Amino acid sequence: MFDVSYQPPGYEDALDVNTSLAVEYLAKHREAPKLSVAAMLPPLSREAIRTLLVVDAACDLPRAWLDFNAVAVMPRIVRFRNEEFVDIPGSDRASVLADKIHRDADRAAVSLPHSSVAMRDHMQRFMLSGTEAVLHLCSSARRSKHFVNALSATQSLVLIHNKVRRTLGQQSSVTAWVIDSMNVLGGVGVLVSHAVRLRERGMLAANIAVTLNSFRSNVHTLIVPNDLAVAANGARTLEQQAIPAWKLTFAGALGLKPVVHVNGDRLQRIRAVRGHVAATGGVFSQIESLVTRGALSTPFVAVSHAGKLDTVERLTAYHSLRSACSRHQVTLSLAPMSMTGTLALGPGATAASFASQQFRA
After folding, report:
1. Does domain 14-216 have CATH number 3.40.630.30?
2. Using one digit for the tens of pLDDT, what is the confidence trace for 66-82?
3. Of 33, 74, 246, 254, which has the fewest beta carbons less than 10 angstroms from its beta carbon?
C-alpha cells in the first residue's frame, strides 16, 4: 500500500540532492512493485519497460485493465469528516463513500492530490533498469492541483535519475512529460488507452506526448448526475458555475436529469431528460451511433457509475451499446466511478467518455 507519510530526509528538493544521496535513494527504491495482486500477468513488453505510463486515480478505468496494460496509478486522498480514504481504481470504498455523501447533509468531503515528494516516491517504485521515459497523464489542470504536484514530482524524479546516470558514465538520460488531459473521469481513461496503443506500436514517448496533446481535444465526456444538489455543489466548486436554487427545485419536481458535456476546458448542459434511466439511455444511444458509423477516433469507450455496476448493466441501451462495440471491435470499459468523481457528481451519477472528431453536442 502507498505510504503517504513516508518523507525521506534530504530528498525534498532534487536540485539540492548530492550524488551519494541520489544513489542511495535509487537503491532504496529499485525494486518495482507488482502492478496487481493477480497471480498471473503477462510479462512486460519492451515498450512498456522503456516507457512508464502513469495516470491519475480519477481515470475511471478498471484496475484489472490498468494492471494488464502496465499502467501505474497515482492515488489521491479523500477526506470525509474524520475519515481518510485512498482513492485508487478498484477500491470497494467508493460505494461506501457514495452512501455517506447521500446521508450527510453538508457533504463535507474533499479530494486532494498527494504531495510532490510522495508522488515522486510512488513513481520511483515502478521504474525499471530499462525505463527511459515517463508519461504522466493527469485530470484537467484547471479543475485539480494534481497536475502541479505531478510536474514537481516528475522533474524531481528525472533529476535524481540523471544525476546518478552521469555519475555512472551512462550516455542516455531519463526523459519525462506531464500531460494535462483537459478532461475528467473516463475522458482521462480514453487518453490512457490511446497512449497504451501508441506505446505498444513502438512509438517513442516524445512522439506519444505530442500526439496526446493534439488528440485530447477530440475527447468527450457525457455525464448524467442523479443527485442534483451534489452536482450543483460540484459545479459551483470546480467550474465556478452557480446553479440557482429555483432551477434545482424545478428540475427535482419534474424529475429532470441534465446531460452535461465536458470537452477540454468547456462544460455545458446540452439537454435535460425526465428520469435518470432515459437520460443515460440517450447518452448510450448517441455513442452507439458513433460506433456504428465508425466515427470514433480510437476504439475505446469508458463508462463509469457511482454505485453498483449492475444498475448500468441492466439498461437496454447499455446492452445495445455493448453489442455494437463487440461488432465493431471497440473496447467498452465499465468501472466504478472514482471517489473523486463521486464527490463532484454524487451517488448514482453515470459518465461515458469517447474520442471523436465528428461528435457534436
Report:
1. no
2. 999 999 999 888 887 77
3. 246
- Give domain 217-355's CATH number out of 1.10.287.4070, 3.90.180.10, 3.30.1180.10, 3.60.21.10: 3.30.1180.10
Crossing angle for the helix pair 19-28 and 146-167, to the nearest 10 degrees: 110
For residue range 238-284, list pLDDT tens digits in order.
444 544 443 444 344 445 788 889 888 787 887 878 788 999 999 99
| C-alpha to C-alpha distances, 188 to 121, 143, 352, nearest whole angstrom | 23, 13, 11
Nearest 10 degrees: Cα torsion 356, 49, 209, 28: 130
Cell (9 digits) for 141: 489542470
Block residue for cell numbers 475527447: 219
pLDDT score recorded for residue 300: 97
Q: Return contacts of 283-288, CB within 8 angstroms, 24+ apart.
A: 283/222, 283/224, 283/259, 283/350, 283/352, 284/315, 284/317, 284/318, 284/320, 284/321, 284/352, 285/317, 285/320, 285/321, 286/222, 286/359, 287/222, 287/321, 287/352, 287/354, 288/317, 288/320, 288/321, 288/324
Cβ-proximal residues to 296 (8 Å cutoff; 6+ apart), any chain = 290, 330, 354, 355, 356
Specify the 3-state DSSP secondary structure of 93: helix
Cβ neighbours of residue 339 under 8 Å, at least 6 residues apart?
Answer: 76, 78, 85, 87, 91, 93, 94, 97, 111
* Residues contacting 26, CB < 8 A, separation 6+: 124, 160, 161, 164
